[in-house]
Write a structure and sequence with these properties.
CATH superfamily: P-loop containing nucleotide triphosphate hydrolases
Number of strands: 11
CATH architecture: 3-Layer(aba) Sandwich
Largest sheet: 6 strands, mixed
CATH class: Alpha Beta
GO molecular function: ATP binding
CATH topology: Rossmann fold
Radius of gyration: 18 Å
Strand order of the largest sheet: 5-6-7-3-8-9
Order of helices and strands: EEEHEHEHHHEHEHEEHHEE
Strand content: 25-35%
Pfam families: ABC_tran
Structural class: alpha/beta
Oligomer: single chain
Protein name: ABC transporter ATP-binding protein
Distance between the termini: 40 Å
Number of domains: 1
Keywords: ATP-binding, Nucleotide-binding
Domain ABC transporter: 2-228
Helix content: 25-40%
Shape: globular
Number of helices: 9
């Protein structure tokens, strides 16, 4: 679904990404972790060809129209400028399929609206929604694109707890159905419980890559995030609770 080889990007002489090698396959829900400034957004945008970078990205190498059919992207920014109905905004995800039959378009839009529980909002102007409702609408637009790969930058930020769980379950289900999902996340607990694999960024490189229990170790959490945490394997997956910082005081 995605292959990055020696992907590097510098800003002001500082390496933001330094030789990233990453492969993402069918059936994977990969959580991209790291503290603020670790390069998560930069990696996603460079992988999509939206930022100039050295190295190879299998997505960035594709022509634009093929790229739009290969991967859907939900950016971190949530501002919706056009006062259009939710249903019409979700339908924008079908632009990547200009030759699709009308019935196929309609079915894809309805599936996306149902998946994000947007039916009661479908005729509301998107600009009048709450921040969380707008986020769900933008996720639905990406789903309506119906691509093999979904890339999402902090997709659950600003959502209430129930909506966060719903979105993480939805992404896991997409992976189980044969898609692949790559999402940057700050909630390590939800990442531990729902992602099939975690990739932890630190100082421009990959500090850890593997199943949640192999990545969210005490050593990695201390080295990369500067925290201690309690982890226990529960019946539904790894349970994570941050406990304290190691910086020895307030910011």
């Amino acid at each position: 679904m995605l292959e990055l080889r020696a992907l590097s990007l510098h800003r002001a002489g500082r390496p933001v990404l330094d030789g990233i090698d990453l492969r993402l396959g069918t059936g994977e829900f990969v959580g991209l972790l790291g503290p603020n400034g670790a390069g998560k957004t930069t990696l996603l945008r460079a992988a999509l060809g939206l930022l100039p970078a050295r190295g190879h990205s299998s997505l960035a190498a594709l022509p634009v129209r093929e790229r739009a059919r290969a991967a859907a992207y939900m950016p971190q920014g949530r501002e919706i400028a056009w006062p259009m109905p939710v249903e019409a905004l979700v339908a924008l995800g079908r632009i990547a399929h200009p030759h699709s039959a009308g019935s196929a378009d309609r079915a894809a839009i309805e599936r996306a609206i149902a998946a994000l529980h947007l039916a009661p909002l479908r005729h509301r102007r998107a600009t009048e929604l709450s921040g969380g409702e707008q986020a769900r609408t933008l996720i639905a637009r990406a789903l309506a694109q119906e691509t093999p790969l979904l890339i999402a930058d902090e997709p659950i930020a600003g959502l209430d707890p129930a909506a966060q769980i719903d979105v993480m379950r939805l992404f896991r289900q997409l992976a189980e159905q044969g898609h692949a999902v790559l999402a940057s996340l700050h909630d390590l607990g939800l990442a531990a419980r729902h992602c099939t694999r975690l990739v932890m960024l630190h100082q421009g490189g990959i500090a850890a890559d593997g199943p949640p229990e192999a990545v969210l170790t005490a050593e990695n959490l201390a080295r990369v995030f500067g925290i201690t945490a309690h982890l226990v394997q529960g019946p539904d997956g790894l349970m994570f609770q941050p406990l304290d910082t190691l910086r020895g005081g307030a910011l």
